[in-house]
Input
Amino acid sequence: MNLRHAREAVRIIWGVVCAFAVIQVITWTMWPVAEAPHRGLLLQGAAAWASVLILATVSTLYLRSLSRVISGHEQAHSAALHQLEQLELSNAVLQVVARSVDVPLAFQTLAQRIVRLVPCDRVGLAVLSENGQEFQTYTARVNKDERRVRPRPDIVFKIERTAIGTVVKSREPLFINDTSVGAADFLDVNVLHSSGVRSALLLPLVTKGRAVGTLNVVSRQPAAFEQQHIEILQPIAEIFAVAHVAQQLHIAVGKYYSMEAMSELTLSIATEINSALQTIIGHCDLLSRGYPDPELQRDLATVVHQAQRISALLETMRVAANERLREVAETVSQGGIPSSPEAFGDHDPL
Output
């Protein structure tokens, strides 16, 4: 039995009582005066009606109490289903991110799940570039006909004069209930308003106290989002923030390994070339001592000078390679990437 069935049962009980009452009144009205019922029968009828009314009242109260219990269970069940769907979405985000370090691709994959929790027309993702001065924005179309196989940046915005820049700076969610109000002040809101969007919700992607972008949902209806939508999307935004930082660190590690390999190759080649140059310089010195011909001395001096010049260039290359390798290593270290298994205990999670 559900809430609707309980209410129908109450209506049926009182409908039967009312029908019984109408039949009784009609019967007594049509009874001949000379054959009026005896007082005892009247008392019995009144007692029967009192019993019927009491039973109907008790049944009504019981059914109403039962309906309240059922309503509470239905609400708890609905809340549990909602929480389960949120957990499933979070688990799906973690699984997708674990399989791919491409955050925009993971975002595109999960857009359909996000829209089931927060009804909207489109879902957006804005992430800071490496220089930290501009945003790359991605849009996940909700309708299957509009979806893209491979996400690509739609528009690149500067931090200044944008709503997403304001959210990143404040690290606080932002409701835009009417895009026409902020269209004159923010470039990104103006773009949304021009495309027919009437309201939006922007959440910062925050990890370790640093905002790296925003997760956005937009709607063609004004004031389409509420506080509960922030509570739904907040865990997803946190996971996307961690995934974006992990992607940047993965890129930095790749650069570090590439730079390390290039530096080792450069140093190895430089050592071999320098060894050959020193051999050339030594032989030129021996020739200059054994053959005092002025022209030969001049040619040998030219060869030695050029060899020394090449050796100096190789030294410059070695210094530059070491400095670049040191810079990349510092970037990786600042990102919190452990250099050994023991170092995992000394680093905070992302």
In short: The chain has eight helices and six strands. Helices lie at 3-30, 39-99, 103-117, 163-170, 179-182, 187-194, 227-290, 294-334. The longest strand covers residues 210-219. Strands lie at 122-128, 134-141, 156-158, 174-176, 199-207, 210-219.
